[in-house]
Amino acid sequence: MTKESMLKEMFLLELGQADFKAIGRSRGFDPQTMASPQLMQHIFLSEQGVAAVLASLSEMEFLGLHLLNCVREEVGLEFFRKMYPDSTPRNPFYGTYTEQYKALFQQVKT
């Protein structure tokens, strides 16, 4: 799967308007860009705001992204447990998968 097709799938199927706004605010996009999923796809690949966003990451998040880039394959939520230890489930045998990992997923998404 190419970077462009993954990006298109993510923007059209997985992200909502709140996600577009969060991405746009963090990267300094204008409101018109954030209102259009198609325009966001194109601007997202630009370097606009990337330096500021990278500067806002913790050292653990920065290293985690570097490791993710080195892995070069799909990973599950388990990959992010070390980056966000406060969001991991207290009892892995209680609740559904979604209930157990909701806080971790929210941290990764943010």
N-to-C order of helices and strands:
HHHHHHH
Mean of the pLDDT scores?
Answer: 83
Bin the strand percentage: under 5%
**Total number of β-strand segments?**
0
The radius of gyration over CA amounts to 15 Å
| Spatial separation of the terminal alpha carbons | 24 Å
| Largest sheet entry | none
Structure description:
The chain has 110 residues and is mostly helical. It has two domains: 1-56; 58-110, no CATH class. 62% of the residues lie in helices and 0% in strands. The chain has seven helices and no strands. It has helices spanning 3-14, 17-27, 31-34, 37-44, 50-56, 59-71, 97-109. The longest helix has 13 residues, at 59-71. It is globular. The two termini are 24 Å apart. The model has no long low-confidence stretch (mean pLDDT 83).
For the structure shown, list the relevant keywords.
single chain; 110 residues; mainly alpha; 2 domains; 7 helices; globular
Fold blueprint:
Blueprint: H1 3-14, H2 17-27, H3 31-34, H4 37-44, H5 50-56, H6 59-71, H7 97-109
Summarize the structure.
It is built from 7 helices and no strands. It is an all-alpha fold and 110 residues long. Helix 1 packs antiparallel against helix 4.
